[in-house]
Amino acid sequence: MARPAVVGQQQQVSVVLVAVALLVLMAAPSVINAGVTCGQVLSYLTPCISYAMGRGSEPPAACCSGVSNLNAAANNTADRQATCKAASA
After folding, report:
1. How many other CB atoms are there within 10 angstroms of residue 20's CB atom?
2. Which of 37, 48, 60, 64 has the most CB atoms in a 10 Å sphere around its CB?
3. Cα distances (angstroms) measured from residue 42 to each of 5, 31, 56
4. Using one digit for the tens of pLDDT, what is the confidence trace for 39-57?
């Protein structure tokens, strides 16, 4: 069982990783055509939940794949803004 200090550090790392993923989404080049829904964001990021909650030493492959697919789907400013709003809801 992990000590509380280690779990806290893992959660901090998880928050940083999610923030970096969102920054990558926001920094991508803009194209006009919004279409990413909160349901899609949830679907892409659901495999990351256990890792973000500190229940894993590394993100599962499905989490990495989901973030990558979300990045590809959110290919314009409106999509990236919708992604951020959905992820923070």
Report:
1. 11
2. 48
3. 29, 22, 19
4. 899 999 999 999 999 998 9
Reference 88, options 30, 18, 36; nearest CA is 18
pLDDT tens track for 14-27: 666 666 666 665 55
Under the banding of pLDDT at 50, 70 and 90, the label for residue 30 is very low
DSSP 19: H
Measured distance CA(53)–CA(4) in Å, rounded: 13
pLDDT at 60: 96
Are 67 and 48 in contact by the 8 Å Cβ rule? The answer is: yes
Alpha-carbon gap, residue 81 to 89, rounded angstroms: 12
DSSP percent split of the chain into helix, strand, coil, nearest 5: 70, 0, 30
